[in-house]
Here is the input.
Amino acid sequence: MKKVLCSALAMAVASLVLTGCGGDSGKQIVRFSHTQVETHPDHLGAVAFKNYIESRLGDKFEVQIFPNATLGNNEKVLELIKQGSIQYLAISTATAESFDKIYSLFSIPYLFTSEAAYEKFITDPKILAQLSINREKDGFEPVAAFTAGTRNFYAKTPIRSVNDLKGKKFRTQAGPVNVAMMNAFDAAATPMSFGEVYSALQQSVIDGAENNELALTDQKHGEICKYFTYDLHQMCPDLLVVSNAFIDKLTPEERQVFTEAAKEAEKVEFAAWHNSVNDAKKKAEAMGVEFITVDINEFRTKMLPLHQQILSDTPDLQTLYDAAVAANQAAE
Ligand code: GCU
Here is the structure.
C-alpha cells in the first residue's frame, strides 16, 4: 500500500513539475534527476553541472535538480527521458540494462581487475561513444560517467569465505547477469529498487545486499547489516544520460556547453567520491559495521566461467569486453 501511495505521489509530483515548460522566467527548464541523497557525489556532480550551465547560458536555461528519486525510481525516469519530459538522469548501468543490453557489460562480475582500470575505462570518451551505438533506438545517450566505487556483499551475518554466501538471499540490481552471478555463488538474487532495500532488510525479506560503502551510511543499511565484505565483485558506474529529444534540438554552441558541463560534473563527482569513501567507512564503523577482507580469488574463480556464457548470450558486448581486458592490462 505504502509503495502504491509513494509511486502515485511521485507520479503526481512528476506531472506537476513537468508541465510548466518555460516557467515564469521564460527560460527553458532542464531537469536533472538522480536517486541519491544531497551529500552524495552524484548530487555534487549535478550541482557542478547546474553551475556550469547557468554561468554560461543562464539567460536561456535553468537547471533543476531532483535528488532522492523524487521523480520516481530510475526505470520510470528513464521512460520520461526517452519521452523528453526529463532531460538528464544519473542512472546505474544495471538499470539502463533493461532498456539496452549493451549496459549489461558492467554487470559482468570481475570484469575489471583494478579500480584504476575501471576508472580509466569509464572516463574514456571512446567507450562512451561505443555505449551510445544504439542511441536512436534508445532515445538517450551517456555523456559522462560517475564512479560508484566497487560493489561488495554485506549482510546480517559475516561473509568470510565464498561458502558463507550459500543459500542466502541478496538484493541485487536488476538484470539476468545479476541473477546468473548469484546462482553461480549458490545464493539467490532478489532484484528490487534501491529505495526498497532498507525495509526489505528490516523485514528479513533478504539476508543482505551488495553495494559500495556509501549505501551503509546514506541509505542506513549499516543500521541492519553489520558485516561488509570486500569481495569487489562488480564495478558499475552511474552514467549521466541525456534525452535525445533535448540534446538534438540545441544549437551547436549550446550543445558544446552542455557537453563540457557533463565532463565538469564527472570531474567533480570523481573528486567527491574519493573524498567520501573513507568518511563513509568511518561512519559505518561507528555504527558497528565490521569491514572484512577476503581471498578475492576464491570469489573470482567461481565467476570466470560466466564471462564466456554472457558473451555468447550477448555477442554485441565483445568489443567493449575486449576493451575492458585491454584497460586491465594497461593498468597492471
Ligand atoms: C549505487 C548506485 C546507484 C544504484 C544503487 C543500487 O548506489 O550509485 O545508481 O541505483 O547503487 O544498488 O540500486
